Amino acid sequence: MKYIFQVRIKEGHTAEEYAEAWVKASEIIQQAPGARGTELHRKIGDDKTLIAIASWDSKEKRDAMEGQHNSEVAKIIRSAAPFCEITPLGEFRDPEWVVLPPEG
Fold first, then answer.
1. Residues 63, 56: Cα–Cα separation, whole Å
2. Sign of the C-alpha dihedral, residues 91, 40, 75, 79?
3. Please, which contacts does 79-82 make with residues 24 or more away whose CB atoms are closer than 8 Å?
4. Which of 8, 53, 77, 90 holds its CA 20 to 30 A away from the CA of 21?
5. Which has the closest alpha carbon to 52: 74, 26, 34?
């Protein structure tokens, strides 16, 4: 499954500031059972808007990680709060099919 959220960088701050916190928190979170990686993307034409995607084996494994309070992750998230606004977009199932271009 995918957990997706939007990050809006506040004026006077940069995406790089958020990305630094993102990497620190992700390194810890990705040690949890079922974690399958994270991605952070900039919106084309708007360097202040990012989309974050966390991949998990299942919703249950992500929920289990969320249920385990990690003070270090909480501290990192608090440190990023002054320079961004985070909007959860939701939890999405992995696709039932994937269409890839033919190898050439």
1. 10
2. negative
3. 79/21, 80/17, 80/18, 80/21, 80/22, 82/10
4. 90
5. 26
Beta bridge partners of 8: 49, 85
Summarised one tens digit per residue, pLDDT across range 21-42 is 999 999 999 999 999 999 999 9
Reading the block at residue 4, the tokens are 């997706």
Least Cα distance to 72 among 27, 16, 25, 14 occurs for 25
Domains of the chain from N-terminus onward: 2-92 (3.30.70.100)
The model's pTM is 0.86
CA atoms within 13 A on the CB side of 88: 6
Q: What is the pLDDT of residue 98?
A: 83
Task: Compute the chain's Rg from CA coordinates.
Answer: 15
- Find the mean pLDDT for residues 2-19: 96
